[in-house]
Amino acid sequence: MESSQLLGSIDVFISVADSGSFSESARRLSLSQPSVSRHVSSLEEYLGIRLLQRTTRRLSLTEAGHVYYSKARQIQKDVIEASQSVNGFKDTPSGLLKIGAPYNFTETKICPYLSEFLQTYPDIKLDIECNDKLQDIVEDQLDLVIRIGELTDSSYIATTFGKVGMIMCATPSYLENYGTPKTATDLQNHNFIVYENYNQLLLTDGNGTQQVNITGSFKSNIDTVMLSATLQHIGITVLPDMFINDLIKQGQLINIMPQFEVDVKNLFINRVFALHSNRKHQPAKVRAFLDFFKSRFN
User: Is the pTM higher than 0.85?
Assistant: First the structure.
């Protein structure tokens, strides 16, 4: 098998292992299902060992497949980084810049500056893929990924955009109808809009930290949905400050009990950062985006 064919078959094998399906990999790679199957079979024949265990119901890696997959992912990452180290590496940032970012961050922190960024760097074509799930630079073929929270993947370089604080808030109408809480005990008498199953708040001031259990008639796993419910006067919620600061300034939301530092227990949202590949060979287009939006965020 020639080297170019080998790399192509490795890419297909990784896609099949990640998706657990020949048909799903065919869809992702814009190939036919028989073509995907041929790539994997050719790779197994070349190696002289079975990588995938196939049954009518499921697809799984063999023991050898697990070992090969780990090494193959590293090879794939190195090949992509080798290409990225050349593409766009000029004095003038240029080329297609593919970014993965959460919906709300894109809407509030990137969209307001799109025109300015593209006018500043007219040779860059920007492609933003919004997704609130964790995205991977190699698997999703992105130049950089923006995340909110804690760094869990140490295989990439992380550039911090800024810190994130949590604010407990509600509309003036809700507070007029149900009263404004002043203490942790008061919160237990209020309806909360809860993020997934994170139903405990940590309130910290000079006297220490109090833990408060919260309940409510509505919960969601999307912050934009939670914000919409809050603006409809359903209850109190806790959201990242960068998403609601403007609404508080406009008077649409009220910052409740600002004397406390508010956190949601076990929900580690403390900063915004961008993941990207090796800083040594960073394309100019990536450097331009990081420098531009880091200054706007701060």
Answer: no
